Amino acid sequence: MYFITLFVSGTLTVEVVKAENLVKGDLMASDPYVVIRFPGEKHEQHKHTTVVPKTVNPEFSQTFAYFVTDEHRGEKMTFEVWDKDRFTADDSLGAVQIEIDWILNAFGTKNGAVTNFRDSWKLEGVDHGELQLDFSYQAN
Predict the structure, then answer these.
(1) Least confident interval from 14-23, 72-81, 110-119
(2) Residue 108, class by beta-carbon neighbours within 10 Å (0-12 exposed, 13-18 middle, 19+ buried)?
(3) Cα angle 83-116-114, degrees, rounded to a multiple of 5
(4) CB of 76 within 8 A of CB of 101?
(5) Other CB atoms within 10 A of residue 49 CB
(6) CA 49, 51, 56, 59 torsion-angle sign
(7) How far apart are CA 26 and CA 44, in angstroms?
(8) What is the pLDDT of residue 7?
(9) Is residue 98 classed exposed, middle or buried when 0-12, 13-18 and 19+ CB atoms within 10 A define those classes?
(10) DSSP characters over the chain
């Protein structure tokens, strides 16, 4: 019996669009930003959005690109939302983990075509809040 494994190689682009209804990290609002943890990256290599001051409904509209291969199958990307604090440690406002296999399978690309989708995910570890992400994939 033979198993055929399809080699995956391409560029996965992620736009962190916005977050909605975040918990308040401070008395009145939050100063949110998003950290993206991609498999195999060291801590100092993690990408992050800029801080959006004093809001629980930040608009980020920031895009990040990652090269993906078969080695990333079975791995997860993590999107952590944080409240930036000036004098104390930053506060977690929730996180979302998304399997790279799920992302790649959602595309069904053919002939190297660029495909994309946008969706919102409920933040885990907090009472409420959602993160909207836009994914696109260009096969090599």
Answers:
(1) 110-119
(2) exposed
(3) 130
(4) no
(5) 21
(6) negative
(7) 26
(8) 52
(9) middle
(10) --------EEEEEEEEEEEESPPPSSSS---EEEEEE-TT--GGG-EEPPP--S-SS-EEEEEEEEEEEGGGTT-EEEEEEEE--SSSPPEEEEEEEEEHHHHHHTT---TT-EEEEEEEEEPBTSSS-EEEEEEEEEE-
Locate tokens 């069904």: which residue? 108
Amino acid identity of 41? E
Q: How do residues 37-88 score in pLDDT, each as one tens digit?
A: 999 888 888 999 999 999 999 999 999 999 998 888 889 999 999 999 989 9
The structure tokens listed for 139 are 């096969």
Token look-up 């836009």 returns 134
Looking at residue 104, its pLDDT comes to 77
**Encoding tokens for residue 10?**
């391409």
Across 86-109, average pLDDT: 86
Q: Alpha-carbon distance 58 to 111, whole Å? A: 36
136 Ramachandran zone, left/alpha/beta (phi>0; psi -120 to 50): beta
